[in-house]
């Protein structure tokens, strides 16, 4: 996590868990502990970059379970580079 002092926001990025350790409460504990530590620095918001697409319901569920809510959904963009 890192603190954006100008915007008074703490951001959790990247967030992930090795598949062998998922569903043990470790991600939730990490997020809650990080938010507890960040509170002393004075942010007014916490953000997380989440693969919240339909193919990743567990990731979205984790973040929602600790109080995050959807703000925006990114639209990945791609451009083919011309040769030469």
* Tally of alpha and pi helices: 2
Main beta sheet: 3 strands, mixed
Number of domains: 1
- Name the poorly predicted regions: none
Biggest β-sheet: strands ordered side by side in the sheet = 1-2-3
Quick one: overall form? globular
Please provide a brief summary of the model:
27% of the residues lie in helices and 13% in strands. It is α+β, with helices and mostly antiparallel strands.
3D architecture notes:
The structure is a single chain. The N and C termini lie far apart (41 Å). β1 and β2 form a beta hairpin. This protein is globular. 8% of the residues are buried. The protein has helices spanning 26-39, 57-65, and strands at 2-4, 9-12, 45-48. It is α+β, with helices and mostly antiparallel strands. The protein has one domain (2-65). It is 27% helix and 13% strand. Strands 1-2-3 form a three-stranded mixed sheet, covered by helices on one side.
Entry keywords:
3 strands; alpha+beta; 84 residues; three-stranded mixed β-sheet; 2 helices; globular
Helices and strands in order:
Elements: E1 2-4, E2 9-12, H1 26-39, E3 45-48, H2 57-65
Parallel strand pairs: 2-3
Antiparallel strand pairs: 1-2
């Amino acid at each position: 996590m890192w603190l954006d002092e100008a915007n008074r926001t703490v951001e959790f990025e990247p967030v992930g868990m090795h598949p062998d350790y998922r569903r043990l409460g470790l991600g939730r504990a990490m997020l809650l502990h990080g938010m507890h530590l960040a509170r002393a620095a004075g942010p007014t918001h916490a953000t997380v970059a989440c693969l919240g697409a339909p193919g990743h319901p567990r990731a979205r569920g984790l973040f929602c379970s600790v109080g995050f809510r959807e703000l925006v959904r990114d639209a990945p963009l791609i451009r083919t580079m011309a040769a030469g």
